[in-house]
């Protein structure tokens, strides 16, 4: 399975630049989390990669092949998004049948299992489903097509906590039974941390993080203590944010701590989770940017 790579990708709508100089390599058999605040360009990026939109500038490569609209590997890349590409008057069983014909194959066994688990009747029409159930059904289809790269754009939209948890389990099950690349675009960060291997963060038109989850968490810190000691210890480190509460001064770092630097007894240094790291990275009031 080849890599899917972008080089200096730019997307502009009128005078507004949505994506600027995006250099990204998606590798085979990896689960990516594409994170970003609402409206930051996550859907646009996935849509370009899936050939549903065209980039304003830049290059997309499938392995060594530079892609154009004509030679895009349509069956190898599948995008599940909020945009409804199915006939809303069709029954669910008709949609899965037609998708199988278009894609060349389809995991009907997994589809039936998931429809039963989510209490969805294949005899229902798409337009009879709520927003949450439409999301579930479109995700079921995405997990059952033979594509090597599957893009899930907000796959838990409109779902309660129980159904979100169940859907995450099925994504992992689909990945384990047939390894491929999943890119899950979401702004629900806390839950995605148990699913993804690699983190991509979009902010202000830029890709500001492109790293394994383990490395991202290893560089995410909260340092607290007397302000003078905190500032001295954090000199020349990448400070994302700072807070003052009484005599307690706290800074949030995204950096590798210097091993030679002595940690004063009055300082507390602890890791923060992916959600808090994401909030600090994308906070417009941050003191520094990656």
**Based on the structure, what is the oligomeric state of the protein chains?**
single chain
Top CATH class of the largest domain = Alpha Beta
* Helix-strand category: alpha/beta
Number of domains: 2
CATH-derived topology of the largest domain: Rossmann fold
User: How many alpha or pi helices?
Assistant: 9
CATH homologous superfamily descriptor of the largest domain = P-loop containing nucleotide triphosphate hydrolases
CATH architecture of the largest domain: 3-Layer(aba) Sandwich
| Strand order, sheet with most strands | 6-7-8-3-9-10
Point out poorly predicted stretches: 286-290
Record field, number of beta strands: 14
What is the beta-strand fraction?
A: 25-35%
Ends distance:
31 Å
Task: Give a description of the structure.
- The two termini are 31 Å apart.
- Helix content is 30%, strand content 30%.
- The protein has helices at 42-49, 92-103, 108-117, 131-144, 161-177, 189-192, 213-218, 227-233, 274-282, and strands at 4-13, 16-26, 31-35, 57-62, 65-66, 77-80, 149-153, 181-186, 198-203, 206-212, 220-225, 239-245, 248-254, 268-271.
- By secondary structure, the chain is an alpha/beta fold.
- It folds into two domains: 4-213, 3-Layer(aba) Sandwich (Rossmann fold); 219-282, Alpha-Beta Plaits (2-Layer Sandwich), CATH 3.30.70.
- It is built from nine helices and 14 strands.
- A hairpin with a 2-residue loop joins strand 1 and strand 2 (16-26).
